[in-house]
Design brief:
With 155 residues, this protein is α+β, with helices and mostly antiparallel strands. It has 3 helices and 7 strands, in the order βαβββαβαββ.
Length: 155
């Protein structure tokens, strides 16, 4: 397992993997590709948003975009593991490694209807924090009803 930040040398890999992620969630968030069949990457990887790629045996297996809006306050914007790698807790190990690497306060949101994502994040955060986290449901200005988990990890 190798985690690398997205930069100019691998941004195309992130963009390629993102298409699968966007397609998978398109029915939930009612998003459509452009006339070329390409989904717009949102959020863009710039300013406070950093992308990370997970490689397994040299093959890109997952992506995440993390917004550090204020110092050591992180929001997971996007998280996707290719279906062929969704075994052996790959996603859980990927994001837990980033929790460890970055520390700080974390917020993760799942849109209504993404039941598999809600279940995944509850499992990940519960295990990672030994159930020491806050979960709520609220109306997000962009996504509507969301389930949210929050916790703090000090390095």
């Amino acid at each position: 397992m190798n985690i690398v930040p997205v930069d100019d040398s691998n941004a195309h890999v992130y963009a390629n993997l993102y298409q699968g992620y966007a397609a998978e969630f398109s029915q939930i968030v009612v998003d459509k590709p452009n006339v070329d069949g390409v989904f717009e990457i949102y959020p863009q990887l710039k300013d406070s948003v950093t992308g990370y790629l997970l490689y397994i045996d040299g093959i890109p297996a997952a992506l995440t975009a993390i917004d550090e809006s204020t110092l050591q306050a992180y929001e997971i914007c996007d998280f996707y593991v290719l279906p062929c790698f969704r075994k052996n807790k790959v996603g859980k190990r990927f994001i837990s490694s980033l929790f460890e690497r970055l520390g700080g306060c974390w917020e993760i949101k799942q849109v209504a209807g993404a039941d598999h994502a809600i279940s995944f994040w509850r499992d990940v955060v519960s295990d990672y924090t030994s159930d020491n986290y806050i979960e709520d449901i609220y109306q997000d200005h962009k996504w509507g009803t969301v389930t949210r988990q929050r916790f703090t990890h000090l390095k």
